[in-house]
Specification:
globular; 7 helices; alpha/beta
């Protein structure tokens, strides 16, 4: 079986990207949209996978550590979890056995999910990362991917951080400490 690649579009939702989102990275996140959409189309055309790991939280969950760190965001059943911009329609038109959304409750797309199993069953060896935030969920997903032995490619124009400084730090960290290819 030929090695496959997967594009992970991490947390590209209203709450994280829209100007009115509850925990938005704003314009920097919005500027990622053309790159994310181009890559999503390319991966589908090439017969590879597109996976959309998406934060899913419960309102006022006293046991979730993020409840103490951030305002409520990506609450299950709310429009804050809707994919941002063109991605919302694109996903509805393309969801399939090669394009799917998955819920996650932690920063890393691997923690508490079947992502690693799903990727291994499909012979995926290389992960391409886009989405938000570079310094939180993208970085944590990259760290887990590294520890699980995946090749990591981060598309710089397709990720945005909480601040420009944190964004740069995360990219350098992934490059220097995880061997990620930054393109």
């Amino acid at each position: 079986m030929k090695n496959k690649e997967a594009l992970l579009i991490i947390d590209y939702t209203y709450d994280f990207v829209d100007d009115h989102g509850s925990l938005t990275c704003g314009q920097a996140g919005q500027d990622c949209e053309p790159t994310i959409m181009k890559l999503a189309q390319q991966f589908v055309a090439d017969g590879n996978y597109v996976i959309l790991p998406t934060d899913c939280h419960q309102l006022n969950d006293p046991f979730h550590p993020e409840s103490k760190l951030f305002p409520p965001h990506n609450i299950e059943g709310t429009s804050g979890r809707d994919f941002y911009g063109e991605l919302k329609t694109w996903y509805e038109e393309n969801k399939s056995d090669k394009v799917w959304q998955m819920d996650k409750t932690r920063y890393s797309s691997f923690v508490g999910t079947n992502l690693d199993l799903d990727l291994r069953m499909r012979n995926v060896k290389t992960l391409h990362l886009v989405g938000v935030c570079t310094d939180i969920c993208v970085l944590q997903t990259a760290i887990y991917a590294y520890n699980l032995g995946y090749k990591i490619v981060v598309h710089q124009a397709g990720v945005a951080g909480t601040t420009p400084e944190n964004h740069r730090f995360a990219l350098e960290n992934m490059k220097n400490n995880l061997g990620a290819e930054i393109i």
